[in-house]
Amino acid sequence: MLQGLLRKKEMYGLLIIIALMVYFVLISMKYTYIGIDADNKGNQDQWIVTDIMKNSWASHHNLSPGDEIIEIDHRPPSENHTLRDDMRVERIHQLKMQHGHQTLSFEISTYQISNTWFMHSILPIVVLLATLVISAIVYRNSEGVLERDTIVLITFSLFVAFSYIVAGASARYDHFGLLFLGITFPSVPTLLLHFIYLHAKKNGHKLKKTKWLINAGYSIIGLTTAYDAICLYFDLPIKVSHDEFKTIILVIFTIMIVALLSVTLRQYKTSSTGERPVYTILLLGQLFAFLPFVGFVALPSLIANVQLVSSELASACVSIVPIMYLNLLTTKQLLDIDYALKRFRYFALLAILPTLIIAGLLYIIVQDDSNWGVKWFQAFIVIYTVIISFLFLKERVDARMRSEWIDGFGQFQSSLDRFANQISRIMKPADLEHLLVKEIQTVLRVKSITLLELNLQSSSHKIKSAFGTPADEATINEIKLAAARGAAGSFLPIEQGLCYWFTSSYETCQLLWIHNKYNRTRFNQDELAWLRTLLNYGTLVYENLLLVDDFIGELEQSIAKDKRTPTWLLRLLFSISENERRRLSTDLHDAALQDQILWYQHLEDLSSRHVLSHGAKQDVERICNGLLDVIDQIRETCNELRPPFLKEMGIVEAIRNLLSKVRLRADYSIKLNTDEFHTDIRLDDHQALTLYRIVQELLHNAGKHSKATHIDLTLSGSDEVFSIHYSDNGIGMNLTQLRSSFSHMGLWSIQERVASLEGTIIFRSEPGQGFQVDITIPTLSSSHIRAFDARTAN
């Protein structure tokens, strides 16, 4: 199965990784972490303990600096090469110490299980295996073809895992482990910087001087590793001790971390709005991954030779980076990092005071003088992190379980959902008032609710809606005094119950008074928040309903006063009609017409590819001709719904084109006269389209009703007006009948279209005398239309 997934070189690489993992883990499992630093005093074989490592075997057996090492593995201490060469006691089986006046002898067994054993052996295996699984998934998804940036990212992930797994062998002063850690650990930030460079290059971004930093990082790591290998395996006159080499590694690591963060910060500053969340996640991920080690381990070790947190814990944070990058490469939706940052800043501010209080109490209670500064800092970090994490967790739990655990909270959400659903069917302000009062009474169980309308000038009032006993005179007077100092959309301060300034218009305002609850308890925060949300939503709908009522009233007054529909309303209605015509024309052209053309082509192709009988061939030709007729009809319908090239050709040429098409199918002749038409007449798109529709309607009426054999159409105009004169020799009509049946004829539509342009129309006709129409509309340059536009704007 593995051979089918991996090629030969990948198989070799996997085997090498497994072999190295087995070697380093066996070293960590077999040998107990002793953790004793010692120094030779004088020329005699006298070795004195100088330091005891935390969480080591020595720290748990009451050994302390100043103790003397008498014997290691039943031999003199100087014969132990780790102690002799590196001043460190590791990988031993027997130890004899002089502790004060006591001589202590220890037998150290192999494979001792402890917390340190777990941290140095089991946990690194889990991290490495998880990294291998994720890398295999990425490799499989890429079908064996990996881009350079992905290869570097996988290498980075493996180096992070290997740094963690080699740490145990390195702590036991295994030479190969020390050498390998000198390669993997400082390479982590360099590889990450290399990945960022390749990924930016693939996306078309150039990072200045970054390639130089990468090459310099690799070169320095290579040189230091080569020199360390020589020092470990050869006896040189000038040797660098392990502690000095560790310091060099920490310096390289810190410098590359600073370079990495500066490059990422520069990318963040120059990124676009769409890329900003990605670079924010990258920057924060790197800070959380590397800050614990650099800030709490590396820098304190270099400056004061102390560690504020354990190196194992700080190193484990680096595992965040490969997980973060692999998630960014595979996820479709990013975390809303801006929202998370805002919450983090808020929670971090809240957590400072309780953290200081708890850490201060610990300092007072413990009263431990041994290295208390470091311990207090560790306690502060742990408490601070726990409180912030708890606040994040509390917010998530609130969102999921608050409605179940807190009495009434789910009821508030259900009430808002119910109100939003019912409000869509409300058409009158009075119905909304009744719905609000009913909803508040259902949820809050109050004694009474009163909706007042207060005149702010005269201080008079009237009760518009009420539940229970309306507010008494004393309460109303108190409400009036509070309203004089209040504002719309706020609660007014009164002694009994609640009063909310619901809405206001002109000289009046709507005030909602809510009496106390039946159980005499105060309104809690959740109830007030629900009430404010409900009333804010209701206010918006209420004001819109009032505007609609005012609009309808003004419209009815305008129609009753002028005895005709307002011009602006006619324009609006005809504009909506034209938009629907345009949409229908587009749908017909893009769907029905294209389908007809496609089937016609299939039928022609079928006829040409097969030998048909004479009768079948005639049937196919008849069907093809029928399809062509349908195609022409659809095209003609599309042209009628949406006149082609009206804006490009102008009104005269568009009408001329219309007449040429009508002549092909009409049984009457048409004469067009444009001698008195000035080409510089200015018409907007709405005017031109309306005139075109008027001519269409006149021609349609002539063919359907007038039974005319000849039509004269004259287009004329000047700077001020555009005129249409229509005349036919049809049967004519009685104009009295025309006026009484406008709503049933196309001529009514013509009259309304002319009215929408602020024009005039005159009908002339007698039975048997034909039919004549004179239409005049103002042009854009006329003073009349300019005055109309000014009135409309105002």
UniProtKB/TrEMBL annotation:
Segments traversing the membrane: 12-33, 117-139, 151-171, 177-200, 212-236, 248-265, 277-299, 305-326, 346-366, 372-393
GO biological process: phosphorelay signal transduction system
PANTHER family reported for this sequence: NITRATE/NITRITE SENSOR PROTEIN NARX-RELATED (PTHR24421), SENSOR HISTIDINE KINASE COMP (PTHR24421:SF60)
Classification via Gene3D superfamilies: 2.30.42.10, Histidine kinase-like ATPase, C-terminal domain (3.30.565.10)
Keyword presence, 4Fe-4S: no
CDD domains found in the cross-reference section: HATPase_UhpB-NarQ-NarX-like
Source domain of life: Bacteria
GO molecular function, one term: kinase activity
Full protein name: Integral membrane sensor signal transduction histidine kinase
Span of domain Histidine kinase: 691-781
SUPFAM superfamilies in the record: ATPase domain of HSP90 chaperone/DNA topoisomerase II/histidine kinase, PDZ domain-like
Pfam families found in the cross-reference section: HATPase_c
InterPro entries the UniProt entry points to: HATPase_C_sf (IPR036890), HATPase_dom (IPR003594), His_kinase_dom (IPR005467), PDZ_sf (IPR036034), Sensor_HK_TwoCompSys (IPR050482)
Keyword terms, alphabetized: ATP-binding, Kinase, Membrane, Nucleotide-binding, Transferase, Transmembrane, Transmembrane helix, Two-component regulatory system
